[in-house]
């Protein structure tokens, strides 16, 4: 019997299952470290395979696609903070001070890397541009986020951030991507013939990220530290922010004449906020007793963006396989 088109696809149901599993049986202790290792390995393999799959022309096209990168950075570091400030008159009376600061902190964080690229790949978007844009967002966020914390979140405060994240980005993401690309003459054919393997790694990495991140949130007291009303208010705020940014990035991408492949990259890279970057930076930027409440909006938004964008990626992926426009010609050559 055929599944109704109104029902979620298997991947979305899997993500919902991971949230439920993490709520009932969150991974902790030694097993948490094991799952963290598996997640890191899956992400590293994902970037290695992408490097082996992409042609030199596609990589160069991704690096030089400056209009796309500027739009993604503007969404991440301009549009989001402006939305946070615009909501301040409404949110300030409704939320406890720590949670309100958390919403503003969410708005100044950099984009994610692994999920942005994995979702772009699932949706058959411009993967080289996604690699460059998401990585640049995270690298620049090390410097821009503390500055925006002083300007937007806690005006006049003292902000500093560890640069260890830069080393992690190079070792976990860029190094395997470069290694895979250098080995492309020898393994590129194998990767092309086993395209299903790349899809499994894409989806598997997202499933692991959802389970480990939500497990950490549950262990930190996600379901016991806030009232149901407050939690629903936060969910609504996160949904509002995500809806506005997804709508704006989609509209601007189409208005400015970007290809569908570029639109996918702009939408997914420009709408994400990184829990992986936000958690360690919060420990440096804020006093220890504040960190839990400040990170709660980030954790909720992180889960929501994965769920919504996974569904959106599946919708993009169902479009017919047709020749890409000229602006995405390099991406077409990369996967041909």
Automatic annotation (TrEMBL):
Keywords: Membrane, Transmembrane, Transmembrane helix. InterPro entries: Na+/solute_symporter_sf, Put_Na-Bile_cotransptr. The keyword Transmembrane helix applies. The chain crosses the membrane at residues 12-32, 38-56, 68-91, 97-119, 131-153, 165-183, 204-223, 229-253. The keyword Nucleotidyltransferase does not apply. PANTHER family: SODIUM_BILE ACID COTRANSPORTER 7 (PTHR18640:SF5), SOLUTE CARRIER FAMILY 10 MEMBER 7 (PTHR18640). This is Bile acid:sodium symporter.
């Amino acid at each position: 019997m055929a599944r109704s088109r109104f029902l979620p696809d298997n991947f979305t149901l899997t993500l919902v299952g991971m949230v439920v599993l993490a709520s009932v049986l969150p991974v902790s202790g030694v097993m948490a470290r094991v799952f963290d290792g598996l997640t890191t390995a899956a992400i590293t393999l994902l970037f290695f395979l992408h490097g082996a799959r992409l042609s030199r022309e596609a990589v160069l096209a991704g690096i030089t696609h400056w209009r796309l990168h500027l739009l993604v950075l503007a969404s991440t570091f301009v549009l989001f903070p402006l939305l946070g400030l615009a909501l301040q008159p409404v949110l300030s009376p409704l939320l406890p001070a720590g949670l309100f600061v958390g919403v503003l902190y969410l708005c100044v964080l950099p984009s994610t890397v692994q999920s942005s690229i994995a979702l772009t790949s699932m949706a058959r978007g411009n993967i080289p541009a996604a690699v460059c844009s998401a990585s640049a967002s995270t690298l620049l966020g090390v410097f821009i986020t503390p500055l925006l914390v002083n300007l937007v979140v806690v005006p006049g405060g003292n902000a500093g951030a560890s640069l260890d994240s830069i080393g992690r980005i190079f070792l976990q993401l860029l190094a395997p991507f470069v290694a895979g690309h250098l080995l492309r003459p020898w393994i590129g054919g194998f990767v092309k013939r086993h395209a299903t393997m790349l899809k499994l790694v894409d989806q598997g990495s997202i499933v692991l990220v959802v389970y480990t991140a939500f497990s950490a949130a549950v262990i930190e007291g996600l379901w016991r530290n806030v009232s149901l009303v407050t939690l629903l208010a936060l969910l609504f705020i996160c949904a509002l922010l995500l809806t506005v940014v997804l709508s704006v990035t989609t509209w601007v991408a189409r208005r400015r004449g970007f290809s569908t492949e570029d639109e996918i990259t702009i939408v997914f890279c420009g709408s994400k906020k990184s829990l992986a970057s936000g958690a360690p930076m919060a420990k440096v930027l804020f006093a220890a007793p504040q960190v839990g409440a400040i990170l709660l909006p980030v954790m909720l938004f992180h889960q929501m963006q994965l769920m919504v964008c996974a569904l959106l990626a599946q919708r993009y992926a169902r479009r017919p396989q047709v020749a890409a426009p000229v602006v995405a010609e390099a991406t077409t050559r990369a996967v041909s």
